[in-house]
Amino acid sequence: MKRSRYIIVSALALTLTMLSAAWAVETKEEKSLQKESAEINATADTEKGAMVVVQRLGKEFNVTDTQIQALRDQKLGFGEIAIVFSLAQKMTGGITDANIQSVMTLREGPPTMGWGEVAKKLGTKLGPTISQVKSVNMDTEREMKGGKGQMERDQERHDERHGEMSGHGGGMGNDKGTSHGKGM
What we know:
single chain; mainly alpha; 9 helices; elongated; disordered C terminus
C-alpha cells in the first residue's frame, strides 16, 4: 500500500515537473525576438551605440528620451524597451505611460509572462513586434556603419515623390510645355 502511494506521488510529481518545463519553453517567435533584442543591446554597449539606439527608438516609436530612460531605470535593456514600445503601440491610444505600464505589469507578473503570452493577453500577435524590433536592430546597425536607416530611406522616397508630384523633381513636371489646342 505504501509503495503504491509512493509510485503514484512520484508519477504525479514527475508529470507536474514535465508540464511546467513544457510551459517554460520559449516559442520560435520568442527566441527570434530575444535574438533581435540581444543584438540591439550589444550595439548599445558603447557610448556611441547607446546614443544611436536611443535616437532610433525615438524615431521608430515617436517617444521621448524621458520615456526611454524611465524604462532603463527599471533595468530594461534597449532591446526589451523596443519590445515594450512595439506592444504598447498596438494598444488603444498607442504608446502612453499607462499602456507601457500595462505591458510591464503583464510581463513582470505575477505570474511572469513571456513576450508571446503578453502579446496574446493584449490581443495581438508577436510577429509584427518581431518585425519592428528587427527593423530597429537593422537600422541601428546600418547607422553605426554610417549608412542610412529605413526611416531615412522612406523619408527620401517621400520627398522624391512629393517633388515629382509638385513638378519640382523632374518626374511629373513637363519642361517642354503643353499644348491644349488643336493642330499639335
